[in-house]
Design goal:
By secondary structure, the protein is α/β, with parallel strands linked by helices. The protein folds into two domains: 159 residues, Aspartate/ornithine carbamoyltransferase (Rossmann fold), CATH 3.40.50.1370; 148 residues, Rossmann fold, CATH 3.40.50. The protein is built from ten helices and nine strands. A five-stranded parallel beta sheet has the order 7-6-5-8-9, covered by helices on one side. Bound molecules: phosphoric acid mono(formamide)ester (CP).
């Protein structure tokens, strides 16, 4: 692995290596968090990582920032809205100027699908995709998979139902790639206008009504409607969406015992997910956020200094 551009590129062995590394980091991170300390796993001491964000973010950018600091590295944070992009500088000029300052990896989020691939061909350091348009969000998919395994033991043979704006969701795409590679059965549910054409080509089952899928689910993942990626709203109204496709308390009552509920955030409460369900006992949304730091630590350490990570895992990886 030189870069992390797409979940589609990862082999089951690479996925397992990243998840195992994250799992072995968990006790140390929890211990240091409770003690109020940071830089708990100094695997990347002296390195610098750039967070290059051309699109807004709360969880992903801050999670990478925390992961970088926990590994003992320095973070350079870039937000397009306060940069010289506003004066007309291009993506490639921006990246090449930042690369000239000597970072050891670039984390990039951009509204254009394929931007991280383009960057990876033009810079010499590892590039990590933090979300590119509606294409992929591989670290989100990895943290979702980590969270499912943490709660269920394995995803092999489990039924995962992804509900919401599948057509415009990079999170859905990354999850589908990872879950299928690890042996889960995946179904998607949305109104026809929010499903991609021929959803079966993704290797998933699909239904237009949640009631057809919820009773068999081991995991339900709700997604928000990505209005920023639609030329015009493709449903009559948000309240109609909520009435027919939202995960309300009434629909959540159809779930079997032990079924967990995920959401990558940001949650639009009362639209795709009711507050009582988002904050209820099945919800693992905040576990996803904590696990995101672990998974991103594993990804950064693997790409920037894998020999040092492997040495750390050999000597510290037993908790
Ligand atoms: N899940 C996710 O990508 O959230 P942000 O857009 O806040 O980073």
């Amino acid at each position: 692995m030189k870069h992390l551009l797409a979940a589609a590129d990862l082999s089951p062995e690479e996925i397992r290596f990243l998840l195992n590394a994250a799992k072995k980091m968990a006790p140390a991170l929890k211990r240091e968090k409770e003690a109020g300390r940071s830089a708990s796993l100094p695997i990347l001491t002296g390195k610098t990582i750039v967070n290059l964000f051309f699109e807004n973010s709360t969880r992903t950018r801050m999670s990478f920032d925390v992961a970088i600091r926990q590994l003992g590295a320095g973070a350079m944070n870039f937000a397009a809205s306060t940069s010289s992009v506003t004066k007309g500088e291009t993506l490639i000029d921006t990246a090449k100027n930042i690369e000239a300052m000597g970072p050891h990896a670039i984390v990039v989020r951009h509204s254009s699908a394929g931007s991280p691939h383009f960057l990876s061909k033009n810079v010499s350091v590892p590039v990590i995709n933090a979300g590119d348009g509606f294409h992929e969000h591989p670290t989100q998919g990895l943290l979702d998979l980590y969270t499912m395994e943490e709660k269920l033991g394995t995803v092999a043979g489990k039924r995962v139902v992804i509900m919401g704006d599948i057509a415009h969701s990079r999170v859905a795409r990354s999850n589908i790639h990872l879950l299928r590679k690890m042996g889960a059965s995946v179904a998607v549910c949305a109104p026809p206008t929010l499903l991609p054409p021929s959803p079966e080509t993704l290797g998933v089952d699909y239904a237009y009504r949640p009631e057809e899928l919820l009773g068999d689910a081991d995991v339900v993942m709700c997604l928000r409607i990505q209005l920023e990626r639609q030329n015009r709203m493709q449903i009559p109204s948000l309240s109609e969406y909520s009435a027919f496709w939202g995960l309300s308390l009434e629909r959540a009552a159809l779930l079997k015992p032990g079924c967990i509920i995920l959401h990558p955030g940001p949650v639009n409460r009362g639209v795709e997910l009711d507050t009582e369900v988002a904050d209820g006992p099945r919800s693992v949304i905040l576990d996803q956020v904590f696990n995101g730091v672990l998974v991103r630590m594993a990804v950064l350490a693997t790409l920037v200094d894998r020999p040092k990570l492997e040495k750390w895992l050999a000597t510290n990886g037993n908790g």
